[in-house]
Design goal:
Layout lengths: L8 E6 L10 H8 L3 E4 L2 H10 L5 E4 L5 H11 L6 E5 L9 H10 L3 E5 L4 H8 L13 E5 L12 H5 L4 E5 L5 H10 L7 E6 L8 E6 L3 H7 L6 E5 L36
Parallel strand pairs: 1-4, 1-5, 2-3, 2-4, 6-7
Antiparallel strand pairs: 7-10, 8-9, 8-10
Helix pairs in contact: 3-4
The structure holds S-adenosyl-L-homocysteine.
Length: 269
């Protein structure tokens, strides 16, 4: 029988968008036996403090550099210890994951990642909206507007928006004038629907703002929303109210798939 403790490892855990109940079961189980947790700012504090044992060292990384963060994780890691870097939403979206992992690799500390519910999904869920709709759009682009971080070639908002798919814009709430300008340049109409959700899934703090490309800036200004917001521009927005809708083939009685045989033959697919 192997009685050796597990080798030193750091877990990167997605805490979800804010509601502590939206962390995965795996993430919560790890927190419940954690020796050390370094969490990324106020958005994930609740999950960390709610599920961790009283003996766990819990620290906020908001004033730390990337080097200080990885040094702290390396210091805490050891055989048999559960050390967690707790991040908002999913760790692989705008989370500096690889920068940290490379430093842990160099220190020969094992790494595992537990995915999380991204704010893009939480924002659409709280507004009862769908990211995709049959024959409207079947594609979602997760992106941001160029700020201090430059966008790679071919990824300007105007180019991405030219596909007229669902666009989820992170880190961009202070850049609404740019969004309006670039989407119009890509052929989106003034009255194209826009959804902004501030603190999606946060009990008592979530705010849902609906508007159009032309007026969303003014609506967000009036609601004093200038941080922690997801912006979604999509031809699917508002579909709940549409009188006619193309039905998803998955639920079409004439469509055979792996788990169900069609009730009647269908000419399509
Ligand atoms: N990894 C995170 C994103 C981190 S970048 C994720 O998967 O969601 C931070 C940006 O995410 C914010 O500027 C905002 O655009 C968005 N964000 C994070 N949490 C949010 C929430 N609860 N509600 C709305 N937007 C949120």
């Amino acid at each position: 029988m192997n009685t050796q403790p597990d080798p030193a490892k750091v877990w990167f855990v997605g805490a979800g968008p804010g509601d502590p109940d939206l962390i995965t079961v795996k993430g919560r189980d790890l927190i419940a036996k954690a020796d050390a947790i370094l969490f990324a700012g106020s958005l994930v504090q609740a999950a960390a403090t709610q599920w961790a044992p009283s003996t766990c060292v819990i620290k906020d990384s908001k004033d730390m550099t990337l080097e200080q963060i990885t040094d702290w994780l390396i210091e805490q890691a050891g055989p048999g210890k559960t050390v967690i870097r707790l991040q908002t939403g999913d760790p692989g979206l705008y989370g500096a994951l690889i920068e940290m992992v490379q430093r842990l690799d160099a220190a020969q500390i094992a790494v595992e990642v537990v995915p999380g519910v991204s704010s893009a999904f939480a924002a659409m869920a709280c507004a009862v909206e769908s990211l995709t709709l049959p024959e409207v759009t079947q594609t979602v682009i997760l992106t941001r507007v160029e700020g201090r971080t430059p966008m790679p070639d071919g990824e300007s908002l105007q180019e991405l928006a030219s596909h007229h798919t669902t666009l989820c814009l992170f880190l961009s709430i202070t850049l609404l004038p740019t969004i309006e300008r670039e989407l119009k340049a890509a052929g989106w109409a003034d009255d194209a629907p826009v959804l902004v959700v501030h603190k999606a899934s946060w009990p008592d703090e979530q705010q849902i703002i609906r508007g159009t490309l032309a007026d969303i800036r003014e609506r967000c200004r009036a609601a004093k929303i200038n941080s922690q917001a997801m912006i979604v521009v999509s031809p699917t927005l508002g579909a709940r109210q549409w009188p006619t809708l193309k039905k998803s083939k998955l639920y079409d009685a004439g469509f055979t798939h792996r788990f169900r045989r069609a009730e009647r033959p269908t000419s399509q697919e």
